[in-house]
Specification:
This protein is of the alpha+beta class. It has a single domain, classed as Aminopeptidase (3-Layer(aba) Sandwich), CATH 3.40.630.30. The protein is 38% helix and 27% strand. It contains five helices and seven strands. The chain has helices spanning 5-10, 24-41, 47-63, 101-111, 125-133, and strands spanning 14-16, 66-72, 75-83, 86-92, 117-121, 136-142, 153-158. Strands 1-2-3-4-5-7-6 form a seven-stranded mixed beta sheet, with helices on both faces. The chain starts with a helix and ends with a strand.
Length: 162
């Protein structure tokens, strides 16, 4: 998989945010972005599920090892969290889905951060399809998520060496 010159240029809109740069304002913006994204894509979640997950998302955004945010001007339009060669979260504002930002984030994860793994909700068919297109394969399916909720998870691994 090659990254085009246009994609490399677009990487300028992506920025790694250190823990010290993760202001309350930015974290709150990203939590709101997460919620709007989940409401648009995770139709299997109930309102109570979203309310229960929100504080976990906020904590992850504050503490995760690597946080990359996609900006348009100064407005966050997407983000990706990574740790231990794994994409832990990737969410886009609904208006920015289908514009290639998710693919650019994933390619950045693969080539810059040497990511090898990602977990995807089985019901999120679009996300699974994008990861497959970019070289990931399912190596395991778990009937519940990491919090024990009945949301099946596909454990995926990059299927070619870097």
């Amino acid at each position: 998989m090659r990254i085009t010159a246009a994609e490399w240029k677009a990487f300028g809109q992506l920025r790694e945010i250190s823990r010290s740069e993760r202001t309350e304002k930015l974290v709150n913006q990203l939590v709101q972005l997460w919620e709007s994204s989940v409401r648009a894509t995770h139709h299997f979640l109930t309102e109570q599920d979203i309310q229960n997950i929100r504080p976990i998302v906020k904590e992850v955004l504050q503490t995760i090892g690597i946080l990359v945010v996609a900006f348009e001007d100064d407005t966050p339009v997407g983000f990706m969290c990574m740790q231990d060669q794994k994409i832990e979260a990737l969410f886009l504002a609904p208006a920015y889905r289908g514009k290639g930002i998710g693919k650019r984030l994933i390619r950045l994860a693969i080539y810059t951060y040497k990511v090898l793994y990602v977990d995807v909700n089985e019901q999120n068919v679009k996300a699974e399809s994008i990861y497959r297109h970019l070289g990931f394969e399912t190596f395991r399916r778990d009937a519940v998520d990491d919090q024990g909720n009945p949301f099946p998870i596909l454990r995926m691994k990059l299927n070619y060496p870097l």
